[in-house]
Amino acid sequence: MARLALVTGGVSGIGAAISKLLKASGYRVVANYFGNEADAQAFHAETEIPVRTFDVADFEATQTGIAAIVAEFGPVEVLVNNAGITRDSSLHKMTLEQWRSVIEVDLGGCFNTCRAVIESMREHRFGRIVNISSINGLSGQFGQTNYSAAKAGVIGFTKALALEGASRGITVNAIAPGYTGTTMVKAVPQAILDEIVADVPVGRLATPEEIARGVLFLVGEEAGFITGETLSINGGRYMH
Ligand code: CAA
């Protein structure tokens, strides 16, 4: 049977592109979402990919949500931690809620989902985990102490779990997208976004599909020797 992939935040933006590309490439896909019910229903109507809601920031809800997916579809063999939020503010104005919510979704979400699937991956001696980080976790970004910290944390988390999974056939990698044409990025004030794009050697935003290609590459059966790596897909804007 085709491998089962779970994509968090998988009904819109980069996540939707990942869900669709994995399905088109022969994976069985379940797309997680939280809050954006209308997006989820439209995505399901368009793709026929099953959609399931739980809050990745909520440990118990995530364990219960993934257990229900496993009961219905079988063990999760490919996990893409794509769910993420921004709450941009310079630190001198940032509220504790803005700090916590971004850390809990963008970084805590990786712990909560990985914790729910790792025992089964270890038992089956196979797993592919891809965590979506960000260029801003590598470079830092004005107004994103919360997001840059979470996304840098995702890279450390990826490397540590890669070490733990290596002897069990589990690879864990990160992708650091640059600015991509999604609702999240389009919410950045236009003048700031224009300056950012002017700094991209390729001269434009990424498309969600261009980020999804990286995920497809990393989750392949043949990618078993690539682990603990961070793949930047940023049009040459930041070379580290
Ligand atoms: N670099 C340096 N200085 C900057 C700056 C920057 N990027 N942005 C603003 N400033 C300066 C302003 O010119 C202003 O200077 P003066 O005080 O001398 O006039 C000062 O900083 C304003 O500071 P404030 O703290 O008052 O900033 P603000 O409240 O007006 O705006 C902000 C802060 C809302 C964070 C705004 O800068 C912003 O929206 N920035 C964009 C952040 C961004 O790129 N987010 C990415 C979202 S998409 C994403 O995250 C996806 C992904 O992975 C790439």
UniProtKB/TrEMBL annotation:
Transmembrane annotation, as ranges: none
GO biological process, one term: poly-hydroxybutyrate biosynthetic process
InterPro entries: Acetoacetyl-CoA_reductase (IPR011283), KR_dom (IPR057326), NAD(P)-bd_dom_sf (IPR036291), Sc_DH/Rdtase_CS (IPR020904), SDR (IPR050259), SDR_fam (IPR002347)
Documented EC number(s): 1.1.1.36
Highest taxon above the source species: Bacteria
Gene Ontology CC: cytoplasm
Alphabetized UniProt keyword annotations: Oxidoreductase
Any Pfam family hit: adh_short_C2
SMART domains: PKS_KR
GO molecular function: acetoacetyl-CoA reductase activity
Domain Ketoreductase: from-to ranges: 3-178
Protein family according to the UniProt entry: Belongs to the short-chain dehydrogenases/reductases (SDR) family.
PANTHER family in UniProt: 3-OXOACYL-(ACYL-CARRIER-PROTEIN) REDUCTASE, 3-OXOACYL-[ACYL-CARRIER-PROTEIN] REDUCTASE FABG
The protein, known as: Acetoacetyl-CoA reductase
Native source organism of the sequence: Segnochrobactrum spirostomi
